[in-house]
Design goal:
This protein is an all-alpha fold and about 100 residues long. The protein has five helices and no strands. It is flat, with a radius of gyration of 22 Å. The relative contact order is 0.06.
Length: about 100
C-alpha cells in the first residue's frame, strides 16, 4: 500500500473511533427521551462553592477540577488563572492610565 492509502485508512479509523466515543457519551448524558440528564452549570458551581459565597473563585475551581481529574490537572492553565486572580490590574496599556 502506498503511504497515502495508509494515511487515509488511519484517518478514517480515528474518525470512526471518535464518532463512536461521541455517540457513547451522548447516550450517557441523555435520558430515554434524548433530553440532557447531566449536571447543570448551576449544580457544578454549587459543588465548587465550598465557602458558600455564591460564586466559585479560582481556588475553588482549581480544587474541584483537581479532585475530579487528579492533582496537576491542567497545571499550567490553572497556574496562570491563579496568577491573574492575584494581580491588581489586567496589565493592558489603557488600564495603567485608569489606575493612576
Amino acid at each position: 500500500m502506498t503511504k497515502l492509502v495508509k494515511l487515509t485508512l488511519l484517518v478514517c479509523m480515528l474518525m470512526s473511533a471518535s464518532l463512536t466515543g461521541a455517540i457513547e457519551m451522548l447516550d450517557y448524558l441523555t435520558d430515554a427521551n434524548g433530553k440532557y440528564a447531566g449536571p447543570s452549570v448551576e449544580d457544578n458551581i454549587a459543588k465548587m462553592d465550598t465557602d458558600n459565597s455564591g460564586f466559585a473563585d479560582v481556588a475553588e475551581v482549581r480544587a474541584f477540577l483537581e479532585k475530579k481529574h487528579g492533582v496537576g490537572y491542567q497545571k499550567a492553565l490553572l497556574d496562570r488563572w491563579v496568577t491573574a486572580a492575584n494581580t491588581r490590574s489586567c496589565g493592558t496599556s489603557f488600564a495603567e492610565e485608569l489606575v493612576k
